[in-house]
């Protein structure tokens, strides 16, 4: 971590990420807030690159800056009558205070703790190689059970999202919210 | 001047604080979800910086385990975003609003 380029990149990317995060909080328009959120995700991906995490940085750009932000824009566009403004609720003061307190505590610990004893340039010998082979080995080897559980989680999240927003074709009969899931699931198996 | 673990942890803490403030104080359900995504991102930065800088690994430990954790956090974040946004759309379809101050059906 000696070269000047990395230091400059760290400060520029940190300023970009934190500034974009603040803009998410401060901007009045929800769509502008999503755009600033994408900027914060990209700055975070740059920070991941300065940590020699190449695969995670690419995955961050693909998943966060690509997929999740598109999902957010879709959600905003699918709720047209809802307010477009990024207004604060009644709990703005406790919310901001909680955020400030958390940031202050973590920042205090980060600067006061003696990291030098347990941190250093130990990871430098692997910084030359790509990380993706090791990640793949760990995913299929030591963490294969968690990997399979994550795939099942993704499958059920996909099914759950489809079942939740599935639109009934017949005139809507008001059902109990608890029974709605089962009924929708039954209907979705039959072709409309 | 060099960049060390503390710098990354401080940035991560600030971004996490911004995420908490957004998630707690926004009125729109989608904006709350944006705050949650910021918090998850800050946690990813913490995991990656410890994985990069820490020397407290034993001989059998793999320092890139932190990267594997981040992969799982990304997976859960994607699943959570999909389900939560589907719920926001569903609530909007029934209540014509995603204003969290007006969705108080479960309030005691």
Describe this structure in words.
The complex is a heterodimer of chains A (192) and B (108). Chain A has 192 residues and is mainly α. Chain A has helices spanning 4-26, 30-50, 54-78, 92-112, 132-140, 144-165, 177-189. Chain A is globular and about 65 Å long. Chain B is an all-alpha fold and 108 residues long. Chain B has a single domain, classed as Orthogonal Bundle (Helix Hairpins), CATH 1.10.287.3510. Chain B contains three helices and no strands. The N and C termini of chain B lie far apart (55 Å). The chains are: A mainly alpha (192), B mainly alpha (108). At the A-B interface, helix 1, helix 2, helix 3, helix 4 and helix 5 of A face helix 1, helix 2 and helix 3 of B.
- Corresponding CATH superfamily of the largest domain in chain A: NADH-ubiquinone/plastoquinone oxidoreductase chain 6, subunit NuoJ
Oligomeric state of the chains? heterodimer
In whole angstroms, the N-to-C terminal distance of chain B is: 55 Å
* Elements of chain B, N to C (H/E): HHH
- What is the number of independent domains of chain B? 1
**CATH class placement of chain B:** Mainly Alpha
Bin the strand percentage of chain A.
under 5%
**N- and C-termini, Cα separation of chain A:** 60 Å
Number of helical elements of chain A:
7
- From the 3D coordinates, which CATH architecture of the largest domain in chain A would you assign? Up-down Bundle
- Backbone structural class of chain B: mainly alpha
Percent of residues of chain B in helical segments? over 70%
